[in-house]
Design goal:
- By secondary structure, the chain is an alpha/beta fold.
- It is 28% helix and 19% strand.
- It has 13 helices and 17 strands.
- It has an 8-stranded mixed beta sheet, with helices on one face. Strands 3-2-1-4-5-6-7 form a 7-stranded mixed beta sheet, covered by helices on one side. A two-stranded antiparallel ribbon has the order 8-17.
- Helix 1 crosses helix 2 and helix 5 packs antiparallel against helix 13.
- The chain is globular and about 55 Å long.
Length: 454
């Protein structure tokens, strides 16, 4: 980072403490994050489990962006990397590739996460188990001794567990939720809103996967979409066609929230970062670097299903103007009180995109009176620079990943005859409270699919 703070080099998670008034400067907020760490304990069983490796590597990727004291992995065996989340050949190399550290011993003051047959030391400050089964995933305090099957049937369930774990770890470190470390938290992707610990008799194994998608926005949410798509059990990624649309260039601040971005990518177009990562996994991509809006029109030969992950109301309002057959839009909350919020809309629905996001700017609550911003003014920051900095929202990668799993599971449920929704709304901090509105009309998913690998 440069010595001068700007919207381009602001750490979007550090901004949380600036906006709350608990940090008097960006440096102080970064120092707080520098005390946040995590130990992840794994067992030898991870060597033969792609699902457990997906949970681990997702946790490492999410964690190193937010927990600046580091993510230490204890017990990682010398074994092959069974995932497509890193091109590294071994699991230990993949951990390093994604920002983690393989260690023989845990950090005595950091919380613990356990995957599979891993074992946390008895004197652990606080600890959770990641666990999943079928379409359901989550975390539980170690003392609860809750463990589901940790099976390989639904590739997105370990992602849910990883995102839930990061939510709990962050809340524990930040001290902003009294139950963090003391509660069970999880989500069912098959029946959002139902207790995730209870099995559903009609949960299917994944048999069909979407084959042609248009991704709008390649920042926090868009890169999480890519991460989720990469864990799905495609037989051949080369059979999957992805149009990647984003006009923006990666800034230093984006690397704190976006799962495919690293400091070395700063200055590169976001769509090209996503394309390079996806093509390394064998996906077929097309890059579209125009700004999405009313002028964008899909041609008949192009993918008819869009996944939208932009935070621009004008772009969202135009989603139904582009002639897509079906759209899944994911959005995140804003500000220090709302950044954990998640909403997923589908179109066509009972309401149009334009009625949900009218062409009216809704001003964000001002945080310019907080000590960190007053200090910047006293240091000489002008009014324009302060307004731009204050307007940037708090961001964390784990909420984006959870939103992405919900968005893509909407496609998967439709491919498997499950429940369909035009709205799913929740918060990563209160996953036992999920609001859903069922889709009024559902037609068979006829927009391109492939058989899943068994």
């Amino acid at each position: 980072m440069t010595n001068t703070l700007s919207a381009d080099n602001l750490h979007r998670t550090a901004k949380y403490f600036m906006d709350r008034g608990t940090a008097a400067s960006h440096q102080e907020a970064m120092a707080m994050l520098g005390r946040f760490g995590l130990n992840v304990h794994v067992g030898a069983d991870i060597a033969a489990s792609a699902a457990k490796q997906v949970a681990l590597l997702s946790l490492v990727n999410l964690g190193h962006r937010t927990l600046l004291a580091g993510v230490r992995v204890v017990g990682a065996p010398e074994c092959n990397n069974l995932t497509t989340l890193s091109t590294a050949p071994t699991l230990r190399d993949a951990i390093a590739d994604l920002g983690g550290l393989c260690c023989d011993a845990a950090d005595a003051v950091a919380p613990a996460a356990v995957i599979g047959n891993g074992e946390a030391p008895p004197n652990t400050v606080v600890g959770w188990r990641l666990t999943w089964e079928g379409w359901r995933g989550g975390v539980a305090p170690l003392r609860d001794q809750l463990r589901l099957a940790d099976d390989e049937h639904m590739a997105l369930a370990p992602l849910v567990a990883a995102a839930c774990l990061m939510t709990e770890v962050f809340s524990f470190h930040a001290g902003d939720h009294p139950m963090a470390g003391r509660r069970v938290a999880g989500l069912s992707l098959w029946r959002p809103g139902v207790d995730w610990r209870e099995p559903s008799a009609d949960e299917p194994a994944l048999s069909y996967l979407p084959s042609r998608l248009w991704l709008i926005g390649l920042g926090n949410l868009g890169q999480a979409f890519c991460w989720v798509l990469a864990v799905l059990p495609y037989k051949d990624h080369a059979e999957v066609e992805l149009v990647l649309q984003d006009f923006d260039t990666l800034a230093t601040s984006n690397a704190s929230t976006s799962m495919l971005s690293f400091d070395a990518d700063v200055g590169t177009k976001k769509a090209r970062i996503a394309a390079a990562w996806l093509e390394a996994q064998g996906f077929k991509t097309v890059i579209e670097e125009r700004r999405f809006g009313p002028a964008i029109k899909r041609e008949n030969a192009e993918p008819g299903v869009a996944l939208c992950g932009v935070d621009n109301a004008l772009a969202r309002a135009a989603l139904e103007d582009a002639d897509f057959n079906f759209v899944v839009e994911a959005g995140l909350g804003a500000g220090p009180d709302g950044f954990r919020g998640i909403s997923v809309h589908t179109f066509p629905g009972s309401r149009t995109a334009r009625s949900i996001w009218p062409n009216v700017a809704i001003p964000a609550a001002s945080v310019a009176h907080m000590p960190a911003y007053e200090k910047l003014v006293n240091a000489g920051m002008d009014e324009c620079g302060l307004a731009i900095l204050a307007s940037r929202t708090v961001g964390v990668p784990f909420v984006g990943l959870l939103a992405a799993t919900l968005a893509i599971s909407e496609l998967l449920r439709r491919l498997h005859g499950g429940a369909t929704f035009e709205l799913i709304s929740t918060s990563s901090n209160t996953l036992d409270d999920v609001t859903t509105i069922a889709a009024a009309v559902t037609t068979p998913y006829g927009f391109g699919h492939l058989a899943a690998r068994r």
